[in-house]
Amino acid sequence: MFKSVYNWIDERLDVTPLWRDVADHEVPEHVNPAHHFSAFVYCFGGLTFFITVIQILSGMFLTMYYVPDIINAYASVDYLQHKVPFGSIVRGMHHWGASLVIVMMFLHTLRVFFTGSYKAPREMNWVVGMLIFFIMLGLGFTGYLLPWDNKAYFATKVGIQIADSVPYIGEYIKVFLQGGDIVGATTLTRFFAIHVFFLPGALLALLAAHFLMIRKQGIAGPL
Amino acid sequence: MSTHENQESAHAPVKRKEMSRRQFLAYTLGGASAFMAGGAVLPMIRFAVDPLLEKRSAGSFVKVVEESKVKVGEPTEFKFKIHQVDGWYVSDPEQAAWIMKDDNGKIFALSPICKHLGCTIGWNTEKNNEYVCPCHGAHYTVDGKNLSVAPAPLDEYQIKIENGFVYLGDIVPNTRV
């Protein structure tokens, strides 16, 4: 059944080369844990991506209940966590996944560093990876405010104070992030927009560049 | 064909510095694209940076307490309500100030927000005539001078005395230390 549907589509659109180009590529022996178990360190990048996909999916589902509004934000999070079936699971995935992404990304960075994989001709991919790192930190910072509880509020206050201490432009960064004079209604909507649209958009573009480059250049050779 | 070429060369002598057709089209298309992209992007930029361009109105003064209730040499905490506009939320949150009269009879009011990480300080909670922050143990003198932990002295409220009442305004950096 599935095969005939696939063949019907493939006859018309010739889709086989499309996925074959993505899926069929050489995995060298030195990065394959089936050959050398210690090669599991080469999995950290893929694991980071796997958790990122979970973050995007669980985040999409969280917005079905969440409201970025200072009166209702906490109540909506409380509701989806305690009243909606599997709410604690879905929010738990997003909550713990956020930390896990950072951990996995850190391990991936260590692997790249200690195998020297950032060296020529892969310098640009290292730089893109660093940009992804900062985007992830931004996602963590903006997402932390969204439950609008005391921890979120004061963490954001401190974070914005740190931004405020930048010479000359600190004040402007502060007002731009706050969307006003205080951490309030406009801050929450801003952080929501940044967390849900702007940073994920930038993240997907950078990830695409990251993956295109590694496919084009191949995995760095054995030590 | 050959006659046509001859005609071309007959017209050739006028040598002007002119743009090629390709260049002209590149500039025109580039300019038009930039104009259209700008038309789409500029409204969004202006929309996003509005908080930066909004005029900050100098805060108005709020009546807090009778001058006679302010003690000499001993700060007292007074609560008052300020009018706050936060986007589409208009509210009157309560604020606190530690107000006292110094030895010269001058009244001043300190903000209770710790300059370390923004907790709320208390007066004399350790019985040593100092402001103390319960979070990380910052200490301040009666004038708000930072003694430990905090990187800066306590902020002051702008103050105005009218008809025997103390009015407080914006929070400004400490002027006493």
Could you explain how this protein is built, in words?
The complex is a heterodimer of chains A (223) and B (177). Chain A is built from 9 helices and no strands. Chain A has 223 residues and is mostly helical. Chain A has a single domain, classed as Cytochrome Bc1 Complex, Chain C. Chain A is globular. Helices cover 24% and strands 30% of the residues of chain B. In chain B, the strands form 4 sheets. Chain B has a 4-stranded antiparallel beta sheet with strand order 7-8-9-10, with no helix packed on it. Chain B has a 3-stranded antiparallel beta sheet with strand order 1-12-11, with no helix packed on it. A 3-stranded antiparallel beta sheet of chain B has the order 2-5-6, with no helix packed on it. In chain B, strand 11 and strand 12 form a beta hairpin. Chain B has 3 helices and 12 strands. Chain B folds into 2 domains: 50 residues, no CATH class; 111 residues, Rieske Iron-sulfur Protein (3-layer Sandwich), CATH 2.102.10.10. Chain B has 177 residues and is of the alpha+beta class. At the A-B interface, helix 7, helix 8 and helix 9 of A face loops of B.
What oligomeric assembly is this protein in?
A: heterodimer
CATH superfamily of the largest domain in chain B: Rieske [2Fe-2S] iron-sulphur domain
Q: What is the name of the CATH architecture of the largest domain in chain B?
A: 3-layer Sandwich
Q: Taking all residues together, what is the mean pLDDT of chain B?
A: 89
Task: List SSEs of chain A in N-to-C order.
Answer: HHHHHHHHH
The CATH C-level name of the largest domain in chain B is Mainly Beta
N- and C-termini, Cα separation of chain A: 47 Å
Share of helix of chain A, binned? over 70%
Q: Provide the spatial order of strands within the biggest beta sheet of chain B.
A: 7-8-9-10
Shape of chain A: globular
**Strand share of the residues of chain B?**
25-35%
CATH class of chain A: Mainly Alpha
Total domains of chain B: 2
Measured by DSSP, the beta-strand proportion of chain A falls in under 5%
**The CATH topology of the largest domain in chain B:** Rieske Iron-sulfur Protein
Q: What is Rg of chain A?
A: 21 Å
Q: Tell me the series of helices and strands of chain B, N- to C-terminal.
A: HHHEEEEEEEEEEEE
The CATH H-level homologous superfamily of chain A: Cytochrome Bc1 Complex, Chain C
Average pLDDT for all residues of chain A: 95
Please give the largest β-sheet of chain A. none
